[in-house]
User: Fold this.
Amino acid sequence: MEFQTIGKSIWRIDGEKKVRGQALYTIDLKKDGMLHGRILRSPHPHARLRRVDTSAAAKLPGVHAVISRDDFPEGGPLSPYFGRRMKDKTVVALDKVRHVGDVVAAVAAVDLETADAALRLIEVEYEELPVVSDPVAAIAPGAPQLFEHLAEFKNNICHHTSLKQGDIEKGFEESDVVLEDTFRTPVTQHCHLEPHMALAWFDEHGRLIIHTGTQTPFGVRKSLAEIFQMAEEKIRVIVPYVGGAYGGKSHLKVEHLAATLAWKAKRPVRIQLRREEVFLTVTKHASVVRMKTGAKRDGTLVARLAELYYDTGAFAENGPNVVHKATLTSAGPYRTPHIQADGYCILTNKPSAGAFRGYGVPQVALAYETHMDMLAERLGIDSVELRIKNLLREGDRHPTGITMHSVGYEELLRKLGGEIHLEARRKGRGKKRRGKGIACMIKASNTETQSEAKVQANRDGTFTVFSASVEMGQGAETVMAQIAAEELGVPLKGVAFIPQRPDTDLTPFDAMTTASRSTFCMGNAVRRAAKNLKEKFLEFAADLMEISSQDLRVENGRVFAAGAAARGFTYKELAARHFSHNQNELIGSGFYGDEEDAKTVLPFWLVGGCAVEVEVDTETGAVKLLKLVGGADAGKAINPRLCEGQVRGDATIGIGQALLEELKFIDGQPVNASFLHYPLPSFQDVPDDFPVLLVEQPHKDGPFGAKGLAESALPAVPAAIANAIYDAVGVRIQELPITPERVLRALTEK
Assistant:
C-alpha cells in the first residue's frame, strides 16, 4: 500500500518551537499572587513521629500555609491516603517515616528563601527504628515491618505474581543440561532533566486547577479527587510540554502537595523539586533474580524456573504492576513447555520505586539472556541459532495464554548478528581484548488501553486533533498528526493540535502516556476519529453531488467521484458550505479500548534486541563500547526517524544501566543522590558506531500496522554487554552495574 505520510521521516512538528525556546514547560508558568512551596523531608530511613510542631514556621512573616499531619484529622475535609495500586501513601507522614526523604511537612511562602527559613523552624521529634534495605532480608523472619497495621503487607510483601505452565519438576528431569544462577541489579534513577513540579490554585468557583508535567493527567485528577473528596469534574489538570519522564512522572509526585498548600493558603502555589529531592521521590526497582534453566542436548528449551525479588522501596507505588509484568515475561521470548515463575514486590526503607523505561523487564532479561548464551556455549551451538530455534512465533501462544502477533524476532536477530559479524568472534591475548554479544527481549504493553480522540474540521480546511497523549520528547504530536493526515488524505501541514494540551477539560480521556502504548492505543483512536470525520464529509459531499458516498474517493484534501476526478470538492470548500448553513462543529470521534478491543487482552508485544562489540582492558577492568546496534520490530514505522531516535535513546539509557548507574545506600541513607556523584553515560560512553535496525511485521490491530517500540532496546543492552565481556575475557558478570572493579575482581577470581 502506498502511503502519503505514513512511513516518512518527517521532522518533528514541535521541534522548531523547542529549538527556539518558544515551547512552554511548567517552569515557565506563573500566576498572580503565586507562592513558592518547599518540603520538609525525613533525615531518617525509618522512624516513628513523636512530635511535629509547625507553630513557629506558621508565624514567620511571608509564610501563608504550613501543612503537616495536623491538617488531616479523621473525618476531616481532606483524605491523606492515595496510591497507584494501594492506598498506602499519605500526603504527609502520619505515624512514622519510612525512607530518607519521606514528606513530614510542607510550607508555602512569598519566596523560596522564606520557605526554606520556615522549614528550619519546624520541630520534629523522631524515634528511630530498625532499618531494612535489602529485598531478600526484608522478607526473612524477624525483619522490621514497614506497615505493621496492614495485613495485606505481611512480611513486607505487597504483591505476589505467579506463572505456571506444565510440570517444572518433570521438565528438569527431562533436561540434559541445567543452569542455575543469581543475578542482581541496583536502584537507579530516571534522571529526566526537568524535575518534578506543579502549579496549583482554586478558582472562584472552588475548582482545582493544576499545571504539571505528568504522564497521567487523568490519573492525577482521579487521585486528587480522592484526597480532596470532590468530583473529578471539579479538577482540571493541564499538561505543558514535559522535559523527559521515562515513567518517573506517572501519577502523583508533587501535585498533591502543591494543591494542598494552595487549598490552605487560598493562593496559587508552585512547587519545583531540587535535584536531590527528585532522587528521593521515585526510583527504579533493585532486584534479585534467581533463574534455573533446563534444555536438551540439541538446544531445545525444556524448563525455566524464576524467582524475582523486586525492591519497591517504602511504598507500593507502581511496584505491583512492574513485578506482575516482569514475572509474566520472565521466561523470555521463547517456547518453553515447563515454566514456574514467582515475583515478589517487597517493601524496604528506600525511596519508592515506580515505573521506569522497560517496566521490570531489564532486570529479568539480564538473567534469561545470559542463560541463553551460557547454554549456547555449553552445547556448542551458535548463540543466534539457539535463540531462533526456541523463539515464539506468529500465532504461538504465550505462557499467559495470549496469542503472539507481530513478532519479527528471527529477522531482527539475524540482522543484529550480521551487523556486528557475530560469527567472527575473537579473543586476544594482550592487555585489551575484544568480544561480541547479543540479546533480545520481550515486554507486554499496558493493558489499560482506553484512549479517546477527536478531530475537528476548521473553516479554512485544516484540521485540529484533540488528544491527551503527553508530548515529552518522544514525538507523539508528529506521529498522531501523520496518522490523522493519512486517514483524512491531506498533507501533514493541514493538521494541528490545540495550543494547550493535554487538558482534562478539553481533551478526551486517555489512560496514560506510558508503556509505549500511545502509537498503538491513541494512534488507533486518532485514526478512528479521522475516519469518522472523513465519513461525515463523504456523506455531505454525496448529498451535494447526489451520488452514493461509496462512489467517492479522497486524495490530497479533495473529495471526488470515482472515475471522474474533476467532479468534486476540496475539504475547504465542503467546510465553507457546511458552516455557511450550520454553525455546529464538524468533529469526528474515535475510541480505542471498547469491548471488542478488549477481547485482545493485551494490545501488543514489544519485540527488540541489541548486539554489541566491547573492548575490555584486563589491567584496569575498564569496558569500552566499540559498537552498539539497537533493533526493534516497529510493526509499521509511522516515522522511521522518530523510531530510530527512540531506539537509540532507549539503548543509551541501557548503557548507563549496564556500566555506570547505581543509587547507593548505606543503612538506608543515600550517598550519591546528585548529578555530581551519580554517574550517567556521556558522549564518551556512547559508541560512535551506533546504528539502529527496524524490522516491520505489521500488527493486524495497529494503526496502519504500527505498534510501540520505545522500550525495545534497553532491556537487552545489559545482557548483550555482559555476554560480550564473557566473549572477550571469559568471565561472567551477573551484577549491575558492570564496573571496572567488578570486572577486575572476576578476572582475579578466574
The two ends are 57 Å apart (CA to CA). The chain has a mean pLDDT of 95. The chain has 19 helices and 30 strands. The longest helix spans residues 518-545.
